[in-house]
């Protein structure tokens, strides 16, 4: 029995004061999920509030999204996510933070999630995040008092991409800027280019286009 992988999704469903809906970006769950569950890993879901997670990017013309959505077991999991207090970090060999703009509001300051990720990492597990998912990384501190990202190469949704989607004035902070402030060596490619960075069991992807490659990189780190 392989150890399980924990996927983190946002509970936040509005883009600031715009009134526009958001949530977790479906393909940033489904594309890594597809790679990892085919390799024999079971995946569980946690969100800051637990329960049904709001979805953005709901596109069933994407065959991987459709495969996930038609899987009764996994659809039920994402509609009944665990709360952080329900999770035993020793059950998991990796933790993956999915993006979607909602993550910018409820990932960074969630101490319970940061503690779970630090424990999984210090148990020799893998921490991954894609697009806005790295918002969950900015305040993870290891037991030595250092930030997880300090001195490591990372990437995530770039400041240029945030400007391109016209949400740079809406999000509560600039993800790239905040990661750099925590000591990360931020790498990036052009707008919507696939880019995945791996450094000491930390796997980060820039945007939705990088989600599948994040899954592949996590699998390689685990195996």
TrEMBL record:
Keywords (A to Z) from UniProt: Glutamine amidotransferase, Lyase, Stress response, Transferase
GO annotation, biological process: methylglyoxal catabolic process to D-lactate via S-lactoyl-glutathione
Annotated Gene3D superfamilies: 3.40.50.880
GO CC terms: cytoplasm
GO molecular function annotation: glyoxalase III activity; transferase activity
Domain DJ-1/PfpI: 22-220
Pfam families for this protein: DJ-1_PfpI (PF01965)
Presence of keyword Lyase: yes
SUPFAM superfamilies listed in its UniProt record: Class I glutamine amidotransferase-like (SSF52317)
Alphabetized InterPro entries for the sequence: Class_I_gatase-like (IPR029062), DJ-1/PfpI (IPR002818), Prot/Nucl_acid_deglycase (IPR050325)
Family: Belongs to the peptidase C56 family. HSP31-like subfamily.
Protein known as: Type 1 glutamine amidotransferase domain-containing protein
Species of provenance: Flavobacterium humi
Organism taxonomic ancestry: Bacteria, Pseudomonadati, Bacteroidota, Flavobacteriia, Flavobacteriales
């Amino acid at each position: 029995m392989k150890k399980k992988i924990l996927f983190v999704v946002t509970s936040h469903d509005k883009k600031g004061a715009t009134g526009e809906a958001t949530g977790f970006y479906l393909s940033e769950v489904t594309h890594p999920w597809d790679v990892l569950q085919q390799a024999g890993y079971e995946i569980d879901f946690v969100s800051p509030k637990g329960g049904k997670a709001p979805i953005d990017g709901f596109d069933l013309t994407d065959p991987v999204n459709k495969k996930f959505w038609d899987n009764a077991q996994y659809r039920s999991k994402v509609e009944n996510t665990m709360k952080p207090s329900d999770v035993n970090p020793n059950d998991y060999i990796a933790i993956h933070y999915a993006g979607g703009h909602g993550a910018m509001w409820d990932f960074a300051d969630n101490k319970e999630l940061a503690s779970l990720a630090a424990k999984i990492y210090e148990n020799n597990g893998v921490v991954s995040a894609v697009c806005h998912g790295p918002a969950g990384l900015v305040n993870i501190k290891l037991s030595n008092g250092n930030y997880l990202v300090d001195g490591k190469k990372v990437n995530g949704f770039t400041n240029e991409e945030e400007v391109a989607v016209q949400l740079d004035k809406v999000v509560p902070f600039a993800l790239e800027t905040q990661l750099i402030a925590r000591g990360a060596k931020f790498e990036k490619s052009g707008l919507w280019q696939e880019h995945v960075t791996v450094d000491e069991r930390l796997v980060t992807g820039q945007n939705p286009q990088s989600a599948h490659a994040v899954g592949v990189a996590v699998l390689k780190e685990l195996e």
